[in-house]
Predict the 3D structure of the following.
Amino acid sequence: MTAPRVCDVVVVGAGAMGSSVAYHLAAADPALEIVVVERDPSYVRASSSLTAGNVRVQFSLEENIEISLYALAVFERFDEQMSVEGQKPDIRFRPEGNLFLHAPEGCAGAESAMALQRSLGGEVEWWAPEEAETRFPFLESEGLVGGTFGPLDGHLDGYALLMGYKAKAATLGAEFVVGEARELVTRGGRAKGVRLETSQYVLAPIVVNCAGAWAADLSRTADIDLPVVPVKRQVFVLETPELFDQPLPLTIFPSGLYFRSEAPGMLLVGKSLDDDPEGYSFSWQESRFTDLLWPELARWVPSFDRLRLIRGWAGLYAVNTMDGNAILGEWPDLEGLFHANGFSGHGLQQAPAVGRYLAELILGHEPTLDLSALGAERIVEGRPLAEGGLV
């Protein structure tokens, strides 16, 4: 049998979240021996790679707003800060805005959320339907009462983000190994490490579950019922004959249908649907767009009836079925086991703040942001912490 690998911290999952945790730990304490285990080093099925890359402050939960405000500041200087031997990642952060359009029944919640966002320092504007149509004459605003626009919101390259964190963490001493963590090793009420599919053990007093859509599978081996399920979400890339004089912001309709510019003459379109399947499927269906999304899209933007579908893809949301928000921190009944899971589609934009927060908890430092409301205790106690408006 191969001798176990012994270290100070083992992180399961080297996507954006796991790599951010490793980076923040290594930057805070260079003496730590950190091992990050990743099942898919190609990242072809990683949610960080298959994301639309959105970043926004338009949440209605204070913690989520604070997390995003920090992320926006980080992304502005990320390429410089993650430079390794003169090589800079290029996350291509484009603050082209997020425009949430609201029907009458959603107006009160949107206004309340906007007030909270502004009070915390977020830049969010209220647009009357006439203003939205003036800025975007192709938009049909009948049935809408207005929209909230975040001019500093935007999108980025998720793969470049994770690789930037990973390269910097490795430079600081974190070790990235290929393997699938099959089992949490525990003894006497505390975490001791993980067992890989090769039967090799990576032993450490601190284990961080950053396994994304696979998080519940790992936690289940320690009899932890993590309310996280993998849900397939599909994204479509379309060619439009209409050229716009400016990039289109991520525009979200009351039903959750969204589109944004991807490149000149190209659009990204998607929508989370109630019947999106659970499980580890990465297939995408052209009919999903043509039969369900396209008719609704053409209702709001009549000129989009001439779009041409170019390609699509599917990735996984790690959906927290209890309340749709992150599960952060040490598990109450298992000392040394930390979670960063259940982001429900928000993980990429939350990686900077969550990575720092987990590192602070592990090292016993006072957290810069108080994210204790997102702690795992609420899962054990059955206390949902849901968004009051936007999700």
Summary: The chain has a mean pLDDT of 95. The chain has two domains: 5-70+158-227+322-381, 96-154+229-320. The longest helix spans residues 62-81.
